[in-house]
Amino acid sequence: MSTHSARLAALRAQLTRDRLDGFVVPLTDEHMSEYVGAYAQRLAWLTGFQGSAGTAVVLREEAAIFTDGRYTIQVREQVAADEWHYVGVPETSVADWLAAHAAPGARIGYDPWLHTRGWVDETARVLAAVGAELVGVDANPVDAVWTDRPLPSDAPLSVQPDALAGRGSAAKRADVADWLVQAGADALIVPALDSIAWLLNVRGTDVERTPVALSYAVVHADGTAELFVAPGKVDDTVAQHLGNAVRVRDRAAFAAALGGFAGKRVAIDPSLAVSAIFDRVEAGGGTTLPLRDPTLLAKAVKNAGEIAGHRAASLRDGAALTRFLRWIAAEAPAGGQTELSAAARLEAFRRETGALKDLSFDAISATGPHGAIPHYRVDEASNLPIERGQLFLIDSGGQYADGTTDVTRVVPVGEPTAEMRDRFTRVLKGHIAIATAVFPHGTTGQQIDALARLPLWQAGLDFAHGTGHGVGAYLSVHEGPARIAKPGYPGGGPQEPLRAGMILSNEPGYYKAGEYGIRIENLLLVEEREIAGGEAPMLAFETLTLAPIERDLIDPALLTDDELTWIDAYHRRVADALRPLLPGEDAAWLDAKCAPLTR
């Protein structure tokens, strides 16, 4: 089946054999991951959609694909309009669409290993109200027709040294054990791959761009743990690192092991664990406690070792990015470069550091109209030449053993228009407002999100994505629970108060459909801040990312004195930090780019 149309037809035929009237296909895996291994890319295989968030619903006579505002343009470019309805979320949920389109008596299938219990309960309730039924399947029908589906990775695990992790695994497990005792629980099931990697101080290469291994973990109230992972992935070095307190078991045995908690109280995070885990524990006589995984907050609040590592990674990554920015500034106006060639050159600069483990995500290398697609992903079919008169946007990052980076810069190819400068400067004003924010303990990212948007709102503009997300320590580039976003936008909803030690992105943007996109992204560290004469302890941000912000796109007349002071001070810091790491010509170019702005 070489075409997506043929794959859709094959799935419908399989649904008929399975006595199903429809099926829900999410973009996730059995660990509720954002980025998934090739074996779990069911949504992309079926529809052609390459975004990092979405869901498809296939009925006998119609089908729909659900995406949020980041992918409004992208989904229309990649998914056939004659076979799929485009549905925006959160405006319309999968459950509500199904209730409006499924016939009474319809049996709508879902894979219990790919959905949370909350989603299952709500969708079943909505369907029941219209006389339809949500049906869990034992075998995923997409897998039945995906005949050349890749196998899960068999790559070995590696040890994350305590010097970089900042804390040993035994100490982390002891904290979880204390939490279990306080919660009155006997065990904690950890299905999230980055939480397992953080808890056990191990890393893997099973998921592209995220250094994790396909596994499950169970932590017991005595501080011991079980790691369910494929045989052969744990060598002697990793086994010695894990020690006798961590029992290694076959990942294939995990489902059956869930039935072994009879009489036990088992803590499971309902936002991270799939419905099948709850179902099997309860079927085996265990009591499930829907509690938040205690590793989430501990992982988000970076320790001194992790912060030091990120500073080193930011310095190294900033030098590589600066070399690229000089290269693209010279090469793009001359012609001959494309989105793919630019992304490849930036990756090469990062690899020349000798420390790059992987990219932290596929670079969003976007010129002209593709820049208006916030999560655009270039491939051979979409690759555009970079031409004069365009804005070139590059959102990229690296995975280093000491830290994970994520940074966005925009480069004008030739002379930018007055409108481009206006929009860029408004985005910069919002970026500065977040970077300089001071706020009390207990403040959430939702409360400060509007600071990034106000300069755009004042011109009748906005952007349809969150302003910031958490970032891991040589882990996931998108890490919860902290974020900066308003309700209704990706990453919105109930939010975690910001705490000292958290690392988040600061990335407001502006997108003019069909023409260009702008985003300015740095990573920030939440830190304690004393205010002279203040009456309460406060928090603030330190900007960690070090790379010049394009001065030719800034209209200094739109900046206040304080904003001008900030950008000049930031550029002075960038130049002083990166100059010793750059060859002479690159260093001279950096000094020119970081010179003070004048009105």
Strand line-up in the sheet with most strands: 4-3-2-1-5-6
Task: Please tell me the total number of domains.
Answer: 3
**What form results from the Cα inertia axes?**
globular
Number of strands: 28
- The residue ranges in which pLDDT falls below 50 over 5 or more consecutive positions are none
Radius of gyration: 24 Å
Largest sheet: 6 strands, mixed
Mean pLDDT: 96
GO molecular function, one term: aminopeptidase activity
InterPro entries: Creatin/AminoP/Spt16_N, Creatinase/aminopeptidase-like, Creatinase_N, Pept_M24, Pept_M24B, Peptidase_M24_C, X-Pro_aminopeptidase_P
Protein name: Aminopeptidase P family protein
Family: Belongs to the peptidase M24B family.
How would you portray this structure in words?
By secondary structure, the chain is of the alpha+beta class. The protein has three domains: 4-145, 3-Layer(aba) Sandwich (Creatine Amidinohydrolase, Chain A, domain 1), CATH 3.40.350; 158-293, Creatine Amidinohydrolase, Chain A, domain 1, CATH 3.40.350; 301-591, Alpha-Beta Complex (Creatine Amidinohydrolase). Helix content is 34%, strand content 20%. The protein has 19 helices and 28 strands. The chain has a six-stranded mixed β-sheet with strand order 4-3-2-1-5-6. The chain has a six-stranded mixed β-sheet with strand order 12-11-10-8-13-14, sandwiched between helices. Helix 16 (418-435) runs antiparallel to helix 17. It is globular and about 70 Å long. The termini are far apart. The mean pLDDT is 96. Belongs to the peptidase M24B family.
